[in-house]
TrEMBL record, chain A:
Residues 56-254 form the Phosphoribulokinase/uridine kinase domain. This is Phosphoribulokinase. SUPFAM superfamilies: P-loop containing nucleoside triphosphate hydrolases. It comes from Thlaspi arvense. Keywords: ATP-binding, Calvin cycle, Chloroplast, Disulfide bond, Kinase, Nucleotide-binding, Photosynthesis, Plastid, Transferase, Transit peptide.
UniProtKB/TrEMBL annotation, chain B:
Pfam families: CP12. SMART domains: CP12. Keywords: Disulfide bond. This is CP12 domain-containing protein. One of its GO terms (biological process) is negative regulation of reductive pentose-phosphate cycle. It comes from the Eukaryota. InterPro entries: CP12-like (IPR039314), CP12_dom (IPR003823). The keyword Lyase does not apply. It comes from Thlaspi arvense (Field penny-cress). Disulfide bonds join 76-85, 118-127. GO terms for cellular component: chloroplast.
Length: 400, 132
């Protein structure tokens, strides 16, 4: 998809010649110089055909590549639904929409299931992953070059034949190690880490697995425990690099709650990230504790509680927006939205609208859905700002 | 067997029935299936598989889960701290998540994940229409 900008000044009626400049790989520029003998000024007509800009988003979490909910919310913000590539390998992990392509980093496993068993490494271990290939391909896609990406088949546990991936506007790499390798980290325009606490992870995995014959509470627990050492060593440290961390914890509103139904979700936003302005409540940089339920808004048990404060996270300055509790009704959602600032919405009620669009997704009634939606809007904002700044830079370079 | 554990599961379900019940246009998704909007975690699959290929994957993954859990339990009995033990439970996690992803695909797409593949390749074995 090429966008051409044509700057023309006057009618071209004298000799002109073409040069193409080997500029940045993401844009091709053609310069037409028209010599005007009458005056000293030279009029340049520059036709700039820029291949689309690709931004790369990294999403780290430990729940496979079917982070369908987050991905679907994200792609929905940009419009369109993300689907597996049509007609290709049915076990492909990739999701494609009009604007976004989501790549599962499991595809960069250097060892298949048998290989990992032989070497005695889990999928969490960096030794099971080919970071060189990951870096090369993400770099290629970012600079507008299509790649043949391997496919890791989760059903067979084998590496299948590669699939062709075209460079998209927005490339999301999701998996266990998006921020592990420094070179890949430097390619990311924005990164998110989904930090699920142990209690919530346990509750979610029980919900996921209990209906399967073969699983029991013990097996689910044992699986989490056995993976913990590798997880803590290799995956968890990535959160210090993330621009946004979504932390999911058990609620504090219900004493001794261990069901994991009501959640406390914290959106930890790094300060000073280019094109990213953290969401805030009432007064940026201050500390606020807010319970919207009262005279104007009635909520059912256990209600909703918000917190906002500046903090320090791994030696970075951050702003933390926290929501504990559940939305019960539409008007609670819109009420909350109207009190949040810097949401990067394009119209009033956009967050609520996006949440309603996916009311049947898990997390639609609590902070997980809310913050995932907000992060989606922030990424859209980042994308548009980046495009705008690149266009300005090109225009200025052209004038010079 | 499953009903014995069902009561366990009920306690731990997320409260989907408490969500705002507002028309969202999700009817557009329910072309083929009328699936009750309440979350039914007790059932292993929600939307039904249409093609043989999807049914086969479901069964394969279910069997793999049983197999891998058994394997992991045995390996870890010998030595809980061993690499083999960690790898075995990681495999359990992998297949459990793969099974869940298939379920999610069936539920969210509300169609068989092989739909687009089978449109292009109707004659393959995988694309035989599965009949119960």
């Amino acid at each position: 998809m090429a966008v051409s900008t044509i700057y023309s000044t006057q009618a071209l009626n004298s000799t002109h010649f073409l040069t193409s400049s080997p500029s940045s790989s993401s844009s091709k520029q053609v310069f037409l110089y028209r010599r005007q003998s009458q005056t000293n000024r030279r009029f340049n007509t520059i036709i700039t055909c820029a291949a689309q800009q690709t931004i790369v988003i990294g999403l780290a979490a430990d729940s496979g590549c079917g982070k369908s909910t987050f991905m679907r919310r994200l792609t929905s913000v940009f419009g369109g639904a993300a689907e597996p590539p049509r007609g290709g390998n049915p076990d492909s992990n990739t999701l494609i929409s009009d604007t976004t392509t989501v790549i599962c980093l499991d595809d960069y496993h250097s060892l298949d299931r048998t290989g990992r068993k032989e070497k005695g490494v889990t999928a969490l271990d960096p030794r099971a992953n080919d970071f060189d290939l990951m870096y090369e391909q993400v770099k290629a896609l970012k600079s507008g070059v299509a790649v043949e990406k391997p496919i890791y088949n989760h059903v067979t546990g084998l590496l299948d034949a590669p699939e062709l991936i075209q460079p998209p506007k927005i490339l999301v790499i999701e998996g266990l190690h998006p921020m592990f390798d420094e070179r890949v980290r430097d390619l990311l325009d924005f990164s998110i880490y989904l930090d699920i606490s142990n209690e919530v992870k346990f509750a979610w995995k029980i919900q996921r697995d209990m209906a399967e014959r073969g699983h029991s509470l013990e097996s689910i627990k044992a699986s989490i425990e056995a993976r913990k050492p590798d997880f803590d060593a290799f995956i968890d440290p990535q959160k210090q690099y993330a621009d946004a961390v979504i932390e999911v914890l058990p609620t504090q509103l219900i004493p001794d709650d261990n069901e994991g139904k009501v959640l406390r979700v914290r959106l930890i936003m790094k300060e000073g990230v280019k094109y990213f302005s953290p969401v805030y409540l009432f007064d940026e940089g201050s500390t606020i504790s807010w319970i919207p339920c009262g005279r104007k808004l009635t909520c059912s048990y256990p209600g909703i509680k918000f917190n906002y404060e500046p903090d320090s996270y791994f030696d970075h300055e951050v702003s933390v927006l926290e929501m504990d509790g559940q939305f019960d009704r539409l008007d609670e959602l819109i009420y909350v939205e109207s009190h949040l600032s810097n949401l990067s919405t394009k119209f009033y009620g956009e967050v609520t609208q996006q949440m309603l669009k996916h009311a049947d997704f898990p997390g639609s009634n609590n902070g997980t859905g809310l913050f995932q939606t907000i992060v989606g809007l922030k990424i859209r904002d980042l994308y548009e700002q980046l495009i705008a700044s690149k266009a300005t830079a090109r225009a200025e370079a052209a004038k010079a | 067997m499953m009903s014995a554990t069902a009561s366990h599961v009920r306690v731990l379900l997320p409260s989907h029935h408490q969500r705002p019940s507002i028309a969202t246009g999700s009817e557009n998704f329910c072309r083929r299936q009328i699936v009750p909007r309440r979350f039914r975690a007790m059932v292993a699959t929600t939307a039904a598989a249409k093609y043989k290929g999807t049914k086969m994957r479901e069964e394969k993954l279910s069997e793999l889960i049983v197999e891998k859990v058994k394997e992991a339990t045995e390996v870890c009995e010998a030595d809980e701290r061993s690499e083999g033990c960690r790898v075995a439970w990681d495999e359990v996690e992998e297949v459990s998540q793969a099974k869940a992803d298939l379920r999610i695909k069936l539920k969210l797409l509300n169609q068989d994940p092989l739909e687009s593949f089978c449109q292009e390749n109707p004659e393959t074995d995988e694309c035989l229409i599965y009949e119960d």
